[in-house]
Amino acid sequence: MKKIIVCDISNIACFNKRNGKPKIGYIDILFNSIPKDYEIIGIADNSLYHQIDDRKRYKTEYLVSKLIFEAPAGVAADVFILKCATELQCLIISNDLFREYSFISKNWLKNHRIGFMIIDHNLFFTQNIEEDFQFQENAQYLQDFQSQYNDLITGKV
């Protein structure tokens, strides 16, 4: 069974953005850098699709294949990222400090959020994922999450 990591895709795509567009290349680096024994739950803001530098590839390679889940329009992806990670008790890859969310403890975030940098097409983390965290493997939650997401998107909820 794979270990699960929740990734803040909008935060990753916008890394070091300045005045440019979010980069699909940064998402590629993420998915190519995480070891294959991890399941990545990528969650992005709905607006990322309209801003990213290669919409067609983002849609076909990541959204259609459900490697990345979009938050509904008008809802911050952060809420889904935090809910998913707390229920799974897994790590979050994001540089966002999530200060505006009082429902999550600062101590929990300190122990579960990993920051990152992208330098020369390499992804570097603020801490070692394997050594610093005891993962819970929860395949059933992942299936439930995907099912609930599909229901939300198709309007069954």
Which percent range fits the helix content?
40-55%
Strand order of the largest sheet: 3-2-1-4-5
Number of strands: 7
Distance between the termini: 29 Å
What's the rounded overall pLDDT mean? 87
* CATH second-level architecture: 3-Layer(aba) Sandwich
Radius of gyration, in Å, reads 15 Å
Please provide the ordered H/E string of secondary-structure elements: EHHEHHEHEHEEEHH
Task: Write up what this structure looks like.
InterPro entries: RNase_Zc3h12_NYN. The chain has about 160 residues and is of the alpha/beta class. The protein has a single domain (about 5-155), classed as Rossmann fold (3-Layer(aba) Sandwich). Helix content is about 45%, strand content about 20%. It contains eight helices and seven strands. The chain has a five-stranded parallel beta sheet with strand order 3-2-1-4-5. It has a two-stranded antiparallel sheet with strand order 6-7. Strand 6 (about 115-120) and strand 7 (about 120-125) form a beta hairpin. The longest helix is centred in the C-terminal third of the chain and has 16 residues, at about 140-155.
Describe the structure in brief.
Residues 2-121 form the RNase NYN domain. The chain has 157 residues and is an alpha/beta fold.
Features of the shown structure:
alpha/beta, Rossmann fold, 43% helix, globular, RNase NYN domain-containing protein, RNase_Zc3h12_NYN
